[in-house]
Write a structure and sequence with these properties.
With 140 residues, this protein is mostly beta strands. It has no helices and 10 strands.
């Protein structure tokens, strides 16, 4: 068996609160509208998303009530469901696991992108897509 050269993978420090924007060098390796993949860590989004699942995030995805998003809040990045508050006065980041609290958003500008696809860890052929139809409703 022939082996090639190892591929160097750059390690980039996570952005600080002061630099957490779409123009941040942390994100500059992808074009502004280029989808990117992340690995789910923890159990805050169970049962739909499990630790180790890979999600594909669309930076220019449609922001709507019920969408799964990646957003900057309270000094760190969160993967949560975007929901309107009960009084519909503001937006919140809602975890699917009830053990975790909702996180209020000051503005939708804190959202980096919308999840459009999930691959289950260890299951190559099991893919779920989260793409809105013509009415903006996600089809999974």
């Amino acid at each position: 068996m022939m082996r090639g050269k190892p591929i160097p993978i750059p390690v980039v420090a996570a952005p600080s609160e002061a630099t957490a924007t779409a123009s941040d060098p942390f994100f500059s390796q992808c074009a502004g509208a280029e989808p990117f993949a992340l690995v789910v860590l923890g159990d805050s989004m169970e049962p739909e998303f499990r630790d180790g699942d890979v999600i594909v995030v669309e930076p220019d995805g449609l922001l709507r009530d019920g969408a799964f998003v990646v957003a900057w809040a309270e000094g760190e990045w969160y993967f949560r469901q975007l929901r309107k508050s009960a009084d519909e006065a503001r937006w919140i980041l809602h975890p699917l696991n009830p053990v975790y609290p909702d996180i209020p958003l000051d503005t939708l500008d804190q959202v980096r992108g919308v999840v459009i696809q999930k691959r289950h860890a260890g299951r190559r052929h099991l893919i779920t897509r989260y793409l809105p139809d013509a009415d903006g409703v996600a089809q999974s």
